[in-house]
Amino acid sequence: MDAVRVLTVNAGSSSLKLRVIGLDDAVVATADLPHEARGSVDGEISQFLTKVSPFDAIGHRVVHGGPDFQAPLVLDGHVEDALGALADLAPLHNPPAIEAVKVLHRLRPELPQVACFDTAFHADLPAEAATYALPHEWNARWSLRRFGFHGLSHAYASGRAAVLMGRPSSELRLVTAHLGSGASLAAVAGGRSVDTTMGFTPLEGLVMATRAGDLDPGLLLWLMRRGGLSAGEIEEALESGSGLLGLSGVSADLRLVIGAADAGDAQAGLAYAVYLH
Questions:
Q1: Number of H helices and number of E strands within the chain?
Q2: How distant, in Å, are the alpha carbons of 72, 148, 179, 210 from that of 57?
Q3: Cα dihedral 35, 37, 41, 44 sign
Q4: I need a surface site. Which of 104, 196, 215, 239 has the fewest CB within 10 A?
Q5: What are the C-alpha distances in Å from 64 to residues 13, 69, 138, 198, 260?
């Protein structure tokens, strides 16, 4: 069979990453577009396509697959509508991914597009790790559970670690780390995810570039009741104004935060210390 060339699309919270992958997973074309410089997804993808040779299929990283999408699948109108309904669970990720899907349907309608879900690697978490101690009726009615994210990254990292150690994945117990604008850890035993720091949405877990990570939910209730903040104001702050950026007052970029801390900025120093803790 002839080698298949695949355009991979990663519409993340801070960037749009495009790659064309050829024989033996070789990267034959690439573009990284920072979030603040992305402009129109349509325009950026169109420009990229004018510079690359033909490819055979398109693969998308989709962050939140919800309770129903637990394996890669070919995208169609029904699937896209279902993913759109999950947008409020990953507002920084799913909407730009869906936008990229629609753009490529228009620009390359003859090519199959496949969604690969960040939640899929964690779909079989043990019940005790996936279940929140909420009323059973709530969990059942709204499919509340720990979904976990960055699964594509954790799956790769655990598999690659096994190769580099020269041991089968089935023998290993690992902690894998995905450290970027979004960040999470996972416990991987025998090649399967058994726990992870992110939960129902990508807000839970570690301190991130602009996301707060773990918080006492009572603090949020207090801010709503006593601080008069709306759900929308809290969501905006937790998604885009917290983490390294919110705490340091300097930047969401860890390099700049460390630089400011080294220069004597106490607030940046505290932000770095909290991030490490």
A1: 11, 9
A2: 14, 27, 29, 33
A3: negative
A4: 215
A5: 12, 9, 20, 12, 34
Show the tokens assigned to 34.
């920072």
Could you tell me the two tokens for 260?
Answer: 């400011």
List the structure tokens of 253.
Answer: 């970029």
Q: Which amino acid is at 128?
A: E
Alpha-carbon span 69 to 61, nearest angstrom: 13
Q: How many other C-beta atoms lie within 10 A of the C-beta of residue 4?
A: 11
Token pair for 212: 């707060």
Query: Catalytic residues, which ones?
Result: 118
